[in-house]
């Protein structure tokens, strides 16, 4: 098994050179995918990386909206998503049509969309954000009369509590983060009283209320690197533990809930990464009209950084 993984990795590395490809992987990817990636990061860092690369091909090891964002930013590159079924269920909780209907109810509202949304939804939005910059971005909106935040009600609720701005929230949520319950955090805290609790803002407010820090996955990576704490309770998707352990061998990580697994993230495997580069498929390409409108919202997000 290990031997065949080694062979696959070698083939991937060789083909990557021939195709002038870059492999970008999200922090929730399987360990073996993170290990072969050129860059591993959160949604914001991955978009920044995609925007800057001079590779001809971007192999996106993540979910569909991430590959779409890369296509919005790099229309002349080939963006591959090794499994076409790797979509984000939260992103699918809103469509451009339903957003247009909601906008009619609130014609003056500024629409802020979480990056976990389709390109078509981004095209209907004024500004895009990730969990790393949502608070800063909403603060920058100044005295916007009404803000419509889509599709994650929990991130929206968190941003609203941090900025003091009232927002209209779309009722979307992440089916993975919702599995982390407040009692999971309380139990882990009782068992590990010295541990710091870090959670992702997609968690429910009752979970967020029990956390020491609320951070994007990239923020979690940085916080752990810098903290003196030796034990950390991690309230997000299981995949991040691989990187945390690899980069911080002296620290101990306790996953808040074993249930926090995103099945779509796990669809990307060494086999389909190789296959996608061989076949140059499945390709993710956003049509020009949608792309140009969505890019306005994405560019505003990158300006804030
Ligand atoms: P990050 O941008 O924090 O990596 O989050 C992406 C995501 O899908 C979280 O569920
Ligand atoms: Fe979507 Fe949740 Fe999976 Fe992130 S963890 S990709 S928000 S379903």
Which terms would index this structure?
single chain, 305 residues, alpha/beta, 4-stranded parallel β-sheet, 14 helices, 12 strands, globular, binds 1,3-dihydroxyacetonephosphate, binds iron/sulfur cluster
Please tell me about this protein's structure:
The chain has 305 residues and is an alpha/beta fold. It has helices spanning 2-19, 31-36, 43-52, 64-73, 96-105, 119-123, 134-140, 153-163, 182-191, 205-208, 217-226, 240-247, 270-279, 288-304; strands spanning 21-26, 39-41, 57-61, 78-80, 110-114, 127-129, 147-150, 168-169, 196-199, 213-214, 231-235, 252-255. It has a four-stranded parallel sheet with strand order 2-1-3-4, sandwiched between helices. Strands 6-5-7-8 form a four-stranded parallel sheet. It has a four-stranded parallel sheet with strand order 10-9-11-12, with helices on both faces. Helix 1 packs parallel to helix 13 and helix 4 crosses helix 14 (288-304). The longest helix has 18 residues, at 2-19. The radius of gyration is 19 Å and the shape is globular. The termini are far apart.
- The rough form would be described as globular
Task: Give, in order, the helices and strands.
Answer: HEHEHEHEHEHEHEHEHEHEHEHEHH
Radius of gyration: 19 Å
Regions with little confidence, pLDDT below 50 for 5+ residues: none
- Strand order of the main beta sheet, please? 2-1-3-4
Measured distance between first and last alpha carbons:
41 Å
Write down how many β-strands occur, each being a DSSP E stretch of 2 or more residues: 12
Largest beta sheet, briefly?
4 strands, parallel
What is the count of helical runs?
14
Hetero groups: 1,3-dihydroxyacetonephosphate, iron/sulfur cluster
Mean pLDDT equals 97
The class by helix and strand makeup works out as alpha/beta
Helix fraction bin: 40-55%
Strand content: 15-25%
